[in-house]
Amino acid sequence: MDLLATTTIRRPVSDVYAFWRRLENLPTFMAHLQEVRSTGDRTTHWTASAPFDRSVEWDAEITDEVPDERIGWRSTGDADVPNTGKVWFVPAPDGVSTEVHVLLVYDIPGGKLGEAVARYFGEEPHQQLDDDLRRLKQVLETGEVVRSDGAPWGKRARKEFPQRPAQPLSSDEIAKGEAA
Amino acid sequence: MRANTWAGRNKVEVRDVPDPSILNRRDAIVKVTSTAICGSDLHLVDGYVPTMQDGDVLGHEFMGEVVEVGAGVDPGRLRVGDRVVVPFPIACGACAACAAELWSCCENSNPNAGIAEKMFGHPVAGIFGYSHLTGGFAGGQSEYVRVPFADVGPLKIESDLTDEQVLFLSDILPTGYMGAEMCDIQPSDVVAVWGAGPVGQFAMDSARLLGAATVIAIDKEPYRLRMAEEAGHTTINFEEVDVRSRLLELTGGRGPDKCIDAVGMEASHGSAHLHAYDRVKQAVRSETERPHALRQAILSCRSGGIVSVIGVYGGFLDKFPSGAWMNRSLTLRTGQCHVQRYMTPLLRHIENGELDPTRVITHTLPLQDAARGFDLFKNKQDGCEKVVLKP
Q1: What is the ipTM of this complex?
Q2: Which residue has the higher pLDDT, B37 or B286?
Q3: Is A93 on the interface with B (CB under 8 A)?
């Protein structure tokens, strides 16, 4: 499965590149990622949420890196869902912004795991990556993921539709949500 | 705290809800001193805007006192104790749309951008108390409200103007003004305004301020037309006369140079069979609009003129007079108001006495009586033009 998405961020290429190159930043805006941990100069360990409250983990390495231009990576070893990713950065015509293009490729296995992965991504798998990039834009342009009363939990918003009513949260709800 | 909430179609209810708290670093909490019911709230209550949920706190016109600020709020811009009017579109101030002063198209303020994008092609800004399509933000018909990006939008009021004089800077005064500004008004212009509700009244006053020679109000409620007449505008009651013929008489057969639609998706009357057609289609949700005012504005406008749309539309409409629009070189302009662009200049006009927003207020009620306010406003009872609520 190939997912391709694009956004434009009103920050110089060097800032956007530097933020993404620190792969530990990806979980701040990518909904399915719980943690990316650096294990070496070009290697990382990734943890993602999976269906049925499971999580899946894999190692990855950077395969291609041109500062202020592009980053490529791929899973290594015996990943449950082998995957590769590639992001490239292009100065936007306005002279101040950066176009971010992302391609994620998942090698979805057969059997029960494959079905579960397909269900996880739903009927519109690209929607999740589109939303991820919207949050990347929020983080880089405004400093954090934007929350509302109806969608208070940032990157978990999509899973929560239909949403809670647009009325303030009680302190119990806030405590419960922060912990989850 | 007490807050006015959506409780299903045709029902609002003041309920106890939790007090708001800071969710983002640049939030502020505002203690509401005055809020108002907007014509566009009626579209929500009438059930024509999708993605409303039972319990949603309504209200996007409000002002009050800052009682708490998040750690990320620039103290040079906003502090606890400041008296502020809050613009209805939530805008980050950092994206390309905000940089271009297209505040109501802010690219970051709507956490439900993915849903809005499905409906509109591209997402729109978050709006207080205006469905989950525009973010699911609790609104200001309440005692307290959380205001995101509080160091961007809110306008500080440092003079002793009353709430009533400045409250409408939050929406309807800038909306009316933008409707007139989009008309590129020339000194000889005749400007016709469909809808003599509060936004229409402010569009009329703004058109005159911008130099229009004649401003014509079109409505069917005698008390609303009287209000326009008392403000010095010409009036047409569309239930008594044929609008097109009357406009031709008033303009030497040319038609108005500029036309403003301050009605939107729930227009009434017009030609009976077309109204019935729209009513049925809207009732079965195969059309979201009853665009009678827009159709008539396009057909009435002189060739080469501008039709400016500030009435709210939410989805799709039928029988758009594309032939008149194209063949007669009409320009169609529109937008949810970019309120932040107009607040400071319009505050000056209020201070100078060139605009008097208080002239539309007919009812002031306690917040607790919000349901009665909605009823009076919707059914045009008791001469209701604009309801201000006091928490």
Answers
A1: 0.91
A2: B37
A3: no
